[in-house]
Design goal:
Length: 203
Protein backbone atom coordinates (compact mmCIF):
# COMPACT_ATOMS: atom_id res chain seq x y z
CA UNK A 1 0.00 0.00 0.00
CA UNK A 2 2.87 2.36 0.82
CA UNK A 3 4.49 1.96 -2.61
CA UNK A 4 1.12 2.36 -4.31
CA UNK A 5 0.39 5.59 -2.47
CA UNK A 6 3.85 6.98 -3.19
CA UNK A 7 3.19 6.52 -6.92
CA UNK A 8 -0.25 8.09 -6.65
CA UNK A 9 0.90 11.14 -4.66
CA UNK A 10 3.75 11.78 -7.13
CA UNK A 11 1.33 12.28 -10.06
CA UNK A 12 -1.24 15.12 -9.99
CA UNK A 13 -3.78 13.31 -12.18
CA UNK A 14 -3.58 10.09 -10.16
CA UNK A 15 -3.59 11.99 -6.89
CA UNK A 16 -6.66 14.02 -7.80
CA UNK A 17 -8.57 10.90 -8.79
CA UNK A 18 -7.41 9.17 -5.59
CA UNK A 19 -8.75 12.03 -3.46
CA UNK A 20 -12.00 11.97 -5.41
CA UNK A 21 -12.25 8.19 -4.98
CA UNK A 22 -11.78 8.50 -1.22
CA UNK A 23 -14.44 11.22 -1.19
CA UNK A 24 -16.82 8.92 -3.08
CA UNK A 25 -16.24 6.14 -0.58
CA UNK A 26 -16.74 8.41 2.43
CA UNK A 27 -19.94 9.73 0.86
CA UNK A 28 -21.15 6.21 0.14
CA UNK A 29 -20.48 5.28 3.77
CA UNK A 30 -22.40 8.31 5.03
CA UNK A 31 -25.37 7.47 2.82
CA UNK A 32 -25.35 3.87 4.04
CA UNK A 33 -25.39 5.03 7.66
CA UNK A 34 -28.38 7.26 6.94
CA UNK A 35 -30.13 4.41 5.10
CA UNK A 36 -29.70 2.15 8.13
CA UNK A 37 -31.51 4.55 10.45
CA UNK A 38 -34.77 3.56 12.07
CA UNK A 39 -37.55 6.10 11.63
CA UNK A 40 -37.68 6.69 15.41
CA UNK A 41 -34.70 5.13 17.20
CA UNK A 42 -31.97 7.39 15.84
CA UNK A 43 -29.23 8.03 18.40
CA UNK A 44 -26.86 10.95 18.79
CA UNK A 45 -23.92 8.69 17.85
CA UNK A 46 -25.51 7.63 14.54
CA UNK A 47 -26.28 11.24 13.59
CA UNK A 48 -22.79 12.35 14.57
CA UNK A 49 -21.17 9.55 12.60
CA UNK A 50 -23.20 10.18 9.43
CA UNK A 51 -22.48 13.92 9.64
CA UNK A 52 -18.75 13.37 10.07
CA UNK A 53 -18.57 10.92 7.16
CA UNK A 54 -20.33 13.48 4.96
CA UNK A 55 -17.87 16.09 6.18
CA UNK A 56 -14.96 13.81 5.26
CA UNK A 57 -16.35 13.47 1.73
CA UNK A 58 -16.60 17.26 1.48
CA UNK A 59 -13.17 17.83 3.05
CA UNK A 60 -11.48 15.45 0.59
CA UNK A 61 -13.21 17.22 -2.30
CA UNK A 62 -11.89 20.56 -1.01
CA UNK A 63 -8.36 19.14 -0.83
CA UNK A 64 -8.46 18.82 -4.62
CA UNK A 65 -8.09 22.61 -4.88
CA UNK A 66 -4.65 22.29 -3.27
CA UNK A 67 -3.53 20.29 -6.31
CA UNK A 68 -5.18 22.48 -8.96
CA UNK A 69 -8.52 24.21 -9.42
CA UNK A 70 -11.37 22.45 -11.21
CA UNK A 71 -10.14 18.87 -10.85
CA UNK A 72 -12.61 15.96 -10.63
CA UNK A 73 -15.88 17.92 -10.40
CA UNK A 74 -18.08 14.83 -10.03
CA UNK A 75 -17.90 11.12 -9.18
CA UNK A 76 -18.09 10.13 -12.86
CA UNK A 77 -15.93 7.16 -13.83
CA UNK A 78 -13.27 9.26 -15.58
CA UNK A 79 -12.62 11.14 -12.32
CA UNK A 80 -12.05 8.01 -10.18
CA UNK A 81 -9.36 5.38 -9.73
CA UNK A 82 -10.51 1.80 -10.32
CA UNK A 83 -14.12 3.03 -10.55
CA UNK A 84 -15.78 -0.37 -10.79
CA UNK A 85 -13.98 -1.80 -7.74
CA UNK A 86 -14.34 1.46 -5.80
CA UNK A 87 -18.11 1.52 -6.22
CA UNK A 88 -18.45 -2.25 -5.72
CA UNK A 89 -16.37 -2.45 -2.54
CA UNK A 90 -18.73 -0.93 0.08
CA UNK A 91 -21.91 -2.19 -1.54
CA UNK A 92 -20.60 -5.75 -1.65
CA UNK A 93 -19.38 -5.51 1.94
CA UNK A 94 -22.87 -4.50 3.00
CA UNK A 95 -24.44 -7.38 1.05
CA UNK A 96 -22.10 -10.03 2.43
CA UNK A 97 -22.40 -8.82 6.03
CA UNK A 98 -26.20 -8.86 5.69
CA UNK A 99 -26.04 -12.46 4.46
CA UNK A 100 -23.90 -13.38 7.46
CA UNK A 101 -26.32 -11.71 9.89
CA UNK A 102 -29.29 -13.45 8.33
CA UNK A 103 -27.55 -16.82 8.76
CA UNK A 104 -26.49 -16.12 12.34
CA UNK A 105 -29.53 -14.29 13.72
CA UNK A 106 -32.28 -14.51 11.10
CA UNK A 107 -32.49 -10.71 11.23
CA UNK A 108 -34.67 -8.75 8.84
CA UNK A 109 -35.92 -5.20 8.30
CA UNK A 110 -34.66 -2.43 10.61
CA UNK A 111 -32.98 -4.97 12.90
CA UNK A 112 -30.89 -6.26 10.00
CA UNK A 113 -30.05 -2.75 8.77
CA UNK A 114 -28.83 -1.64 12.19
CA UNK A 115 -26.74 -4.76 12.82
CA UNK A 116 -25.20 -4.42 9.35
CA UNK A 117 -24.43 -0.76 10.09
CA UNK A 118 -22.54 -1.81 13.22
CA UNK A 119 -20.44 -4.53 11.58
CA UNK A 120 -19.81 -2.82 8.23
CA UNK A 121 -18.85 0.44 9.89
CA UNK A 122 -16.55 -1.33 12.34
CA UNK A 123 -14.72 -3.08 9.49
CA UNK A 124 -14.41 0.19 7.56
CA UNK A 125 -13.09 2.06 10.59
CA UNK A 126 -10.45 -0.63 11.16
CA UNK A 127 -9.40 -0.16 7.54
CA UNK A 128 -9.44 3.65 7.78
CA UNK A 129 -7.19 3.50 10.84
CA UNK A 130 -4.64 1.66 8.67
CA UNK A 131 -5.07 3.50 5.37
CA UNK A 132 -5.18 7.20 6.25
CA UNK A 133 -1.95 7.26 8.32
CA UNK A 134 -0.03 5.61 5.45
CA UNK A 135 -1.51 8.18 3.05
CA UNK A 136 -0.54 11.01 5.41
CA UNK A 137 3.03 9.71 5.52
CA UNK A 138 3.16 9.70 1.70
CA UNK A 139 1.88 13.29 1.65
CA UNK A 140 4.47 14.46 4.17
CA UNK A 141 7.28 12.68 2.30
CA UNK A 142 6.73 14.93 -0.75
CA UNK A 143 5.75 18.06 1.19
CA UNK A 144 2.22 18.06 -0.22
CA UNK A 145 -0.21 20.79 0.82
CA UNK A 146 -2.88 18.08 1.08
CA UNK A 147 -3.35 16.56 4.53
CA UNK A 148 -5.78 14.16 6.18
CA UNK A 149 -4.81 14.59 9.85
CA UNK A 150 -8.28 15.71 10.92
CA UNK A 151 -9.82 12.63 9.30
CA UNK A 152 -7.34 10.36 11.10
CA UNK A 153 -8.35 11.79 14.47
CA UNK A 154 -12.07 11.45 13.78
CA UNK A 155 -11.77 7.91 12.42
CA UNK A 156 -9.97 6.85 15.60
CA UNK A 157 -12.92 8.21 17.59
CA UNK A 158 -15.37 6.43 15.31
CA UNK A 159 -13.70 3.07 15.90
CA UNK A 160 -13.98 3.50 19.66
CA UNK A 161 -17.66 4.46 19.30
CA UNK A 162 -18.35 1.41 17.14
CA UNK A 163 -16.74 -0.92 19.68
CA UNK A 164 -18.94 0.52 22.44
CA UNK A 165 -22.07 0.01 20.31
CA UNK A 166 -21.03 -3.53 19.38
CA UNK A 167 -20.54 -4.45 23.04
CA UNK A 168 -24.18 -3.52 23.61
CA UNK A 169 -25.23 -5.45 20.51
CA UNK A 170 -23.81 -8.84 21.49
CA UNK A 171 -21.58 -10.44 24.15
CA UNK A 172 -19.90 -12.23 21.22
CA UNK A 173 -19.40 -8.96 19.35
CA UNK A 174 -15.70 -9.62 18.67
CA UNK A 175 -16.45 -12.87 16.80
CA UNK A 176 -18.96 -11.09 14.55
CA UNK A 177 -16.69 -8.07 14.12
CA UNK A 178 -13.76 -10.30 13.13
CA UNK A 179 -15.96 -11.97 10.52
CA UNK A 180 -16.84 -8.58 9.05
CA UNK A 181 -13.15 -7.64 8.98
CA UNK A 182 -12.33 -10.89 7.16
CA UNK A 183 -15.01 -10.16 4.53
CA UNK A 184 -13.72 -6.59 4.17
CA UNK A 185 -10.11 -7.75 3.78
CA UNK A 186 -10.95 -9.86 0.73
CA UNK A 187 -12.85 -6.99 -0.89
CA UNK A 188 -10.06 -4.55 -0.04
CA UNK A 189 -7.50 -6.84 -1.67
CA UNK A 190 -9.61 -6.85 -4.85
CA UNK A 191 -9.76 -3.04 -4.72
CA UNK A 192 -5.97 -2.83 -4.40
CA UNK A 193 -5.58 -5.14 -7.41
CA UNK A 194 -7.87 -2.80 -9.36
CA UNK A 195 -5.73 0.19 -8.37
CA UNK A 196 -2.52 -1.63 -9.28
CA UNK A 197 -3.92 -2.61 -12.67
CA UNK A 198 -4.94 0.97 -13.39
CA UNK A 199 -1.56 2.34 -12.36
CA UNK A 200 0.29 -0.19 -14.51
CA UNK A 201 -1.61 1.15 -17.51
CA UNK A 202 -1.36 4.84 -16.54
CA UNK A 203 2.13 5.18 -15.13
Amino acid sequence: MKDLLNKIVADTDLHSRWLNTLSLMENTGARKISASEDTENVTYIILKHAAEEHRHAYYLKKQLDKLSMGLCPTYSRQFLLAPAQSKYYLNQLDIEVCRYLKRQFNFKGSELRFAAYLLVTYAIEVRADELYPVYQQALEAVGSKVNVKSIILEEEGHLEEMINQLKSFSPDWQIHADTAVLIESKLFDNWIIGLQNELSVTV
